[in-house]
Amino acid sequence: MFTLTRITVHHHQNTHRGGFNAAGARETANYFLLDGIDNLNSSTNQYVFRPSVEIIREFKVQSSTYSAEFGRGAAVIRSGYGVYYDLLLVSNELGAIIFNAPFISTQVFNGSSTSPLPLANPFGGSGTSTTSPRGVPRNLRTSYLQQFSLGLQREVFRNLLFEVAYVGSKGTKLIRTRNVNQPLPGPSSIASRRLYPAFGNIDFRESSGNSSFNSLQMRAERRFSELTFLASYTFSKSIDDASAAVGSAGSTNSPQDSRHLRAERGLSDFDVRHRFVVSYIYEIPNPVADGLLSKLTGGWQLSGITALQSGRPITPRLSIDVSNTGQFQDRPNLVVDPRLDNPDPSLWFNTAAFARPVNFTFGNAGRDMITGPGFNSFDVGVMKNNRFGESGNVQFRAEFFNLFNRPNFNLPNATADSPQFGRIFSAQRAREIQFGLKISY
Length: 441
Fold this sequence. Notes:
The protein is mostly beta strands and 441 residues long. The chain has helices spanning 53-57, 190-193, 292-297; strands at 3-4, 7-9, 32-34, 37-38, 59-62, 75-85, 134-135, 144-157, 160-179, 203-222, 227-240, 266-267, 274-283, 300-309, 313-314, 333-334, 354-355, 370-371, 375-388, 392-401, 432-440. It is built from three helices and 21 strands.
């Protein structure tokens, strides 16, 4: 049966500062109890022990009485909380306004079969122009992230450490892009329905995004032996309404309807539900004790990194402006479940699950609702050390990346009105083999 050693801080009215030093230094007054024993010597009125903040952070789970070795027992409970503020980059957020007039002016000159644009003077006459400024609100706020965790770490066997933890975070006031001049869907001209008819789209970089992340994280580590390894598994879910201010491979991160931002809440572009990684180094024992043969059979080492993870999400979208809002971020309607039992590159999901919305309406398909292919990689290295003299060594290395040459496919085509919808046309790197020779002395 385990008991939790509790450290309780007592506050007294005196001339001492008391409390714990955030920098980890020892304070002049720390009144606390250890298993019911006061930290104040009643005869000398002196402090028996003044712990640093590192000691206070760890609460030792033990089966016996209090030990001064905080954090070094059979098991340790750790928890933490922090608030982290983002740094606004002028080039990313405030730099968007450099694309406005008078710094940049855009004109479009269209030719036709009867009146082509001559190469000698392609910009002759008067072109058409639409002013589409970019902006940043005056009250742009600083994004911040709250991070919290609670974990148990235990030494299961000698040199084998196991840890399980809950880790989560909450993002607030995250930077996103929104078209503040997007009209409501309708059949009339787009300009006549805009809030500011003299302008086109007005993209604003604003601090209105939110995110949440929750995960179960497990880790096993073995050290100081012939076989050293670190294995980690994460089961997580990340949700937000904008993963970035710009687009990614799976999503444009621009809202379909800038007036209804809650409809953008979905999986993050970088959400990976399962991820397992193990790295290892194995010092292969020498079966021959001595002699010339031992030079050949000794000094061998096997190492590697194996990574297995589920796929990242993508957003189905249309290439045409069905809503007639000038945004070109329309999504299709979802009819049935798009998941397939046996997806392959020729058809990764059920494309018949999506349909074109009625004209002048938005689609009901959610953001990042399709999961792409996973990723499996086995990287292995074989090393032979040949020592000479007092400190010399010649090391031969043979390294295999993606050892089994497994195809790790990229994301499928997500344009619903394209004939390539749902198909995959590319993959990541194939197997690579490299050799190396290292001489140290």
